[in-house]
Write a structure and sequence with these properties.
Layout lengths: L13 E6 L20 E2 L3 E2 L1 H11 L3 E6 L4 H10 L10 E6 L13 H6 L2 H7 L3 E6 L3 E2 L3 H11 L3 E9 L7 E5 L5 E6 L13 E12 H13 L7 H12 L2 E5 L15 E2 L4 H10 L27 E3 L1 E2 L2 E2 L1 E3 L2 E2 L4 E3 L2 E3 L2 E2 L4 E2 L4 E7 L4 E2 L4 E7 L4 E2 L4 E2 L3 H7 L1 E2 L5 E3 L1 H9 L2
Parallel strand pairs: 1-4, 1-6, 4-5, 8-12, 14-19, 17-20, 18-21, 19-22, 20-23, 21-23, 22-24, 23-25, 24-26, 25-27, 25-29
Antiparallel strand pairs: 2-3, 6-11, 7-13, 8-11, 9-10, 9-11, 15-16, 28-29
Length: about 425
Amino acid sequence: MVDKKNPAPLARDAMAYVLAGGRGTRLMELTDRRAKPAVYFGGKSRIIDFALSNAINSGIRRISVATQYQAHSLIRHLQRGWNFLRTERNESFDILPASQRVAEDMWYAGTADAVYQNIDIIDDYNTKYIVILAGDHVYKMDYEIMLRQHVDTGADVTVGCLEVPSSEASAFGVMHVDGRDRIVEFMEKPKDPPSIPDKPGISLASMGIYVFETKFLMDQLRRDAAAEGSSRDFGKDIIPHIVAKGTAWAHRFPRSCVRSEHEQVSYWKDVGTIDAYWEANTDLTDITPQLDLYDREWPIWTHAEITPPAKFVHDIDGRRGQAISSLVSGDCIVSGAQLRRTLLATGARVNSYSELNEAVVLPQCTIGRGVRLSKVVVDARVEIPEGLVVGEDPEFDAKWFRRTESGVTLITQPMINRYLASK
């Protein structure tokens, strides 16, 4: 007998299917060697860890990740950090690279096709619900709440959504809803996005999160695969068809956003540009950041490397190892250098007389002596030569590195090599 006051968690009978094949071209050279979901974030995590952690923390124990572009770094991370799910406990974790399973000349043609090509694997698990997730956003969310809304409304699909200014909504799939949040129209990246009925100038944008009954979705994917002219995409094909022929409901992100006592807003970030990526990382150095990574009740799981503690050495004027309003990961050595509003990922070395201000430094970097870096993102394993100054001369920065219009500079090793070769 089901206890109506305390029903069994729906997450027990759900699969999370994470779409993690995108390159993330707006991150420029930062995704030359890795897919966007595999990009480092917050010192020790990867972007995909947020969607996966949300699934685990929500109670979902069957997870699949579809990969495609530059997948090695991502697959290696998943194998090292997410191999704790056990089949004997009715848990599973599948990595599903595009492998030409349908035809020799066919990789994943779109987001829906990335699910369709693995229908047989999904069917084997026989879960009642499936939660489709984008693997490239930073947020904390309890999917159980969204699953419960899906069942209570009797929807064919429930779409996770957030409010954005209408002037920015053209970058998203946009929903036109009625007064009950039933979706009456779904438009993929419209030029003139509709506003929410009671909020002029604000639109309801898709988060790339969808809940279906598994059997229903499989039927829709088979129908779409047989349709001529389909782009095999959720936002362009699957969701608009269901809106027109069935019932679709919007799920507003604040209803299921997980916030600690220190978080005042419903935090969600698409860190898909150099500026957004730099800003989201440096925001973590605030006294009370909008995103609380220290929330033990909703941990962000990741591959936990075994490293020695961070170390700060030297204590004389002009050569003092110190960090102010900064995050310093394990295996970092700050040797007579100063950090302000800076994030050092695992294994960084910062040598004497250097100054880093609002710098995001990815793993295994070495910063030479007398370096000054301001408002930069330094890619993994970069060796910054002695005396280099970036962030003070816009013309110099733009000549040798990737400088955005807002003044953030991306530094990669090939850029450093080109600069050194010119000397």
